Structure formats: C-alpha cells, structure tokens
Amino acid sequence: MHELLIATHNPGKLREYAAIFDGLGLTLRTLDDLGISEDVEETGATFEENARLKAEGYLALSGLPTLADDSGLEVAALNGAPGVYSARYGGVKGAAQLQYLLDQMKDVPWHQRVARFVCVIALARPGQPTQFAQGTLSGVIEAAPRGTGGFGYDPLFYLLDDDKTLAEVPAERKNQISHRAEAARAARVFLEQW
User: Fold this and answer.
1) Which residues are tagged catalytic?
2) Which CATH number fits domain 3-193: 1.50.10.10, 3.90.950.10, 3.40.50.10490, 3.40.50.300?
3) Tens digit of pLDDT per residue, the chain (194 long)?
4) Among 8, 33, 123, 176, which residue carries the largest CB count within 10 Å?
C-alpha cells in the first residue's frame, strides 16, 4: 500500500495527518486530489458510525484504502452537545458558530464548563473489515475566543496544562496532544501492520 485517501476537503486536517504519519512512506491523497465532490451523508448517531460511513463510502468511490474521521466537541453542561453535530451546530459557521456556543454557555460557571474533543478514525480497505481508533482531549470552554491557530472550536477550547487555548498552542504541540493526534497514533499502528 503506497497511497491512502484522507477523506477530507479540510487542509488543516491533512496537515495534521501528514505530520503524524510522517515516515510511513505513504502518499496521502485528499478528496480534492482525486476530484471527488460527492458527499457521504453523516447519518450516524455516533462518531464511530459516521466515520465508518465515510471511510467505506469513499473507499467505494476511490478504490483506495481510506481513512475517515468523525470528530467533535462534547460539552458536559450541554449534555454532550454539540457532539456529532459539531460541524453544523447552530446552523452557522466560523465566528458565528463560536458565538452560538458561547451564547449557550453564558450562564454556566467556569467550574462547570468542562468539555472534551473526541475523534474516531475509521480505516477501510478492500476486502477487509473496517478498523477503528479513538482519541480524546479534555479541556474547558473559554469565555471568549483566543488564538489564531487551528480551526473549528480551537479558539474556545482551553487547555489547563498549557494555560492556552488549542488555537494558541504551536502546531507541533497540538500534533502531540490533540484528540486527532491520539486517534491517529492508534491508527498508525494499523497502517504499519497493513
């Protein structure tokens, strides 16, 4: 196996995976590289179900071994929301989505703002069962966005050990501690076996 499809259009995700899989001798391809514009519907009720749907769906479209992930933010005070709906939470994107989350949290005191990022990776290849890897990262929802790195909810996700948001830590640090990094390290073991 020399090529692996990373089932994303997101250049931030591709950069993170490229750093974590460095040295495996794989050429990483994206959906854009292969001209795949079809969307595989994320109709699952869990991160694992959505990751499986995407990995198996894009394997069928591309013929290449495929890595797909589903990840999101789970906020304890919001009963785990936004969860699998993280990318479309509040029906808005970017800064408006961050503000929507802050509005939901406006009356929640600091000590009850615990949250975690979850990432489930599904690895699919022809004729073999799909394999899964999971990672989590615990933190606290900040009162206002801080930092310009990362993407998504990173500017609101405060890391106690670093005294910074995920958007403020250097990319190298994020690639060591993030939920995606933890899941990708576990996925790397599968890829080495392949």
Assistant:
1) 70
2) 3.90.950.10
3) 689 999 998 887 888 888 889 999 999 999 999 999 999 998 999 999 999 999 999 999 999 999 999 999 999 999 999 999 998 899 988 889 999 999 999 999 999 999 999 999 999 999 999 999 999 999 999 999 999 987 889 999 999 999 999 999 998 898 889 898 899 999 999 998 88
4) 123
